[in-house]
Amino acid sequence: MSTQLYSNAPVDSAPVPDASNMTFGIVVADWNSEITHALLEGATSTLLKHGTVPENIHVKHVPGSFELIYGAHQMTLHGEYDAIIVLGSVIRGETPHFEYISQGVTYGLARINAKSEIPVIFGVLTTDDWQQAKDRSGGKYGNKGEECAVVAIRMAKF
Asked: 61, 73, 78, 97: which one is catalytic?
């Protein structure tokens, strides 16, 4: 049995659809803002690169990652979006708080995604330390916000 090694390459090499007629909602947590705002910059710049006009990118901020669930749910109810991108960062600490928040956010967003008519794209970093988060928000492993934007465009065309 062979083992597949994963790289930090883009999702795949298929062309990204034109997003010029699409509208996106982005909900971003302000906790760990150095990380989450870098993810936001990556997502918005990628949407613009693929044709989305600035007025069709609607950004809402919430205090922390747990509140992303409510924010995403409200966007599915009250927006005319082709897809919603959810951006946050949970960094492991010395208490079980990391596990509770990570699991709660994952389950909450998965439930919304399964029940919504609009794709909800999971862009919440769950890392062991600050450096891992930096590496994934514009560092040596790229910017996961950019990847989320590409996934959002593709899922909007699904």
From this structure: 97
